[in-house]
Design a protein that fits this description.
Length: about 325
């Protein structure tokens, strides 16, 4: 079941700290929160208007990235109430939270499908954030450079010293090709929390394979439909979902990690979290490998814009 390649932009931001920055334990909350606030301020044509009612919603970068919805009149989406945003912020990993003046701070911003065209808006937004401060008006930085990754692993500087050249962005895409000689065992190592729901209930135990695959496949196919070049083809997943029931968990050390974040939009503290650690699946995994290889880049589960659901894949 091959799909058209899904274009992806992987952009690594390298920042030079100019005023001490102290980040929360999960750094993705700070980056994602301030990005949304400042982007809306910069992009909004009618301040105060709700995005769904705004006449400019289909040309607004903020509405596209944060209030993602199908274009008016497009069929095939009635069964869905929520749609994947075409970006992911991969925050700095590690325990270090305090960054002093002249320290280097790095994070990755992933844009999916036609959202790669939004990179000038993204860089401008983080440039403004650096001038104002990343947390409550404190914690300033300068963007040293932004590099983009290509299919062959090459790194190309696309922004430096205030100058952007989008013509330098190398091509990068997820092939989504069938794998006929796949492994019989895979290990998924979740580096950031995996937040899954089934019928509205949060899953606190290592997910059975069929549930994880269903969430991942639906996410990838909706990303294709909304931001790539494919229509919704979820009906083709029926046979694979049946096969997924035969895949079993052989080992896992996944544990629930509780977290709390501050929502700028809701002006409230929100409890959240997810499962981190490793889970090993065994069975005929060949038909599922294109999805799980793609998932290393596009993540799986809820709150992916914060960097949740990031894993590395190992097969044996």
């Amino acid at each position: 079941m091959p799909f058209s390649p899904l274009p992806v932009g992987q952009f690594r931001f390298s920042l030079t700290v100019t005023e001490e920055i102290v980040l929360p334990p999960y750094k993705g909350f700070a980056f994602r929160g301030v990005f949304g606030t400042v982007l809306r301020e910069l992009a909004c044509v009618i301040p105060g208007e709700d995005c769904p009612r705004c006449p400019f919603r289909h040309t607004c970068t903020y509405a596209y990235l944060f209030e993602t919805s199908p274009a008016d009149g497009v069929d095939g989406f009635r069964r869905f109430s929520n749609f994947p945003r075409p970006y992911i912020i991969n925050p700095p990993m590690g325990d270090k939270r305090q960054f002093r003046r002249y320290d280097t701070l790095q994070f990755e911003f992933v844009l999916i499908g036609r959202a790669t065209e939004c990179i000038p808006h993204v860089i401008t937004t983080f440039d403004v954030i650096g001038q104002r401060g990343i947390r409550n008006g404190r914690g300033r930085y300068l963007i040293k450079n932004v590099t983009a990754a290509g299919d062959l692993g090459q790194q190309q500087v696309v922004f430096r010293c205030g100058k952007l050249d989008v013509s330098l962005v190398p091509q990068h895409s997820i092939p989504l090709l069938p794998d006929h000689d796949g492994p019989t065992s895979i290990t998924l190592d979740f580096e950031t929390p995996l937040l899954l729901e089934e019928r509205g209930k949060i899953q606190y135990e290592p997910p059975r394979f069929s549930l994880l695959f269903e969430h991942l496949a639906r996410r990838i196919m909706l990303l294709q439909a909304l931001h790539g070049a494919e229509g919704v083809r979820l009906e083709q997943l029926g046979a694979l979902l049946n096969q997924a029931d035969d895949i079993v968990i052989t080992d896992s050390d996944m544990r629930w990690q509780s977290m709390e974040r501050i929502s700028n939009r809701q002006r409230a503290r929100i409890k959240t979290g997810g499962l981190t650690g490793k889970v090993i699946y065994q069975g005929n995994l060949a038909p599922f490998m294109p999805f799980f290889k793609a998932g290393e880049l596009v993540h799986v589960g809820k709150s992916t814009t914060f960097g949740f659901g990031r894993y590395t894949l190992q097969d044996s």
